[in-house]
Amino acid sequence: MASSESAVLQFFPSSTSLSAKVHPLVIFNICDCYVRRPDQAERVIGTLLGSIFPDGTVDIRNSFAVPHNESSDQVALDIDYHHNMLLSHQKVNPKEVIVGWYSTGFGVTGGSALIHEFYSREVQNPIHLTVDTTFMNEEATIKAFVSVSLSLGERQLAAQFQEIPLDLRMIEAERVGFDILKSTMVEKLPGDLEGMEASMERLYVLIDDVYKYVDNVVEGQVVPDNDIGRLMADTVASLPKISPPAFDRLMNDSLQDQLLLLYLSSITRTHLSLAEKLNTAAQIP
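Given the sequence above, the corresponding structure tokens read:
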């Protein structure tokens, strides 16, 4: 009696513990390339640069756009431009390597598999980053995907994009710029003092949330979380022990130093502009 073998569909993920961390500079660069895109282009495609940590976290630190032509059934990338830009970047930052590619828009499209196949030849297990540049309701939808192979026995049938954890961390100055980027209508860019004021207001809101959480835990309305308690303890322990008058004096001195630097830079720009005009006037016969 002949033995029958059953074929089973199997998914083979590229990595089971893969995650990504993207720097705000990458998001700013992608949005800038989207604004400067050709009129006939619906989205922007580019290369992601960074490094991979030993724990499997992909650190995305830089990017550059790659010209492309896209239709309903095919995508043509400028491969020579991609390689030339990569060589130029590695002359400045030799430690940055290709970690994946990005595209603007919401989610994965039909041509994404073709582009991902090209980057799979450039690097193993590339990351696909999608950035929704419409910023609907002033919210940024940023996702990261990896390719998962669907096989029937030993024959690969297709590839599926699977979302992975993505971490977007930024310092307070980057947070101010990111909030402005999400706003579709901005009358003017905030100055240094206005940015500091917005940061202080956000800090007050966060401190008020911490007060409410502690009060709810003390009153028994919320179950205490040991991890949150440790983070709060570390935050309080990191604060310097300084009296309020000394803190006010230190804050005022720092603010005056910043205002002095702004004043000196303004004088320097005025002197350079005046010297340029005098030099131009001297060259006129």
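The CA atoms of residues 166 and 182 lie 19 Å apart. Try to locate this feature in the token string yourself.
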